[in-house]
Amino acid sequence: CHLYGLGDVEMTPEHIRLLGERAGSVPAELISSTDAPGARSTASNPIVRHFSDAVRFYFEFHRDHDQGFLAHMHDPFAAAVAVQPDIATYRHATVDVELVGTLTRGTTVADWRGMWGKPPNAAIATHADPQAFFDQLVERVGELAATLYPAQHGQQASGIEGVE
Description:
The protein is α+β, with helices and mostly antiparallel strands and about 160 residues long. The chain has helices spanning about 15-25, 45-65, 75-85, 130-150; strands at about 10, 70, 90-95, 110, 120-130.
């Protein structure tokens, strides 16, 4: 789903390829919209393999709902903002949760105009820097994967859980 100002935090197969490359995974991790539904990764690096398999569901879901072969990465983006706040811009507002609305119960609501007379209690990300986010994700996860599971020449995934 598109979040206001954050809809472009969309992972593509190219991000997965770059992650596999950074991790030294063999073969290069290539996800394609023409792969069989539910196809499993053959990456040699288990972190890349599991990451790829986890996001493949979202690639396929969005493709099947005519939104493109991509994965919205809002939750990982929120975690990244906690570590590196400058990958987003913010607007302060009072936020509360609607408790009685028939259609909106449980929805967070922002008072953008100060009509409630309460001081702002949240900094709301209104614009993202997806390039900075994905550069950071590829670098950090790729480096972790390469450190924990260094590439071995000619290494292939076994396809058997627990066997590298």
